[in-house]
Amino acid sequence: MNHTFPAFLLLALAVAVLFSVVAAAIAFALARWEGAAVPTALSRCGIAFAASLTLCLAVLAAFDRT
Question: Keyword Transmembrane, does the record have it (predicted)?
């Protein structure tokens, strides 16, 4: 077993979360720019975060299978 595997796994998870946070922040900014209220913008922000994190983790899981 490779002892660096947990470190790479944590790094990949951290990158996925950071990417999702950036996507959520962009979604929030675009919603506010469109004129949406803050609760609506937060809702879109949460949806974007969940969707991008799900996609990132699915890609990481697919890479782990190969």
Answer: yes
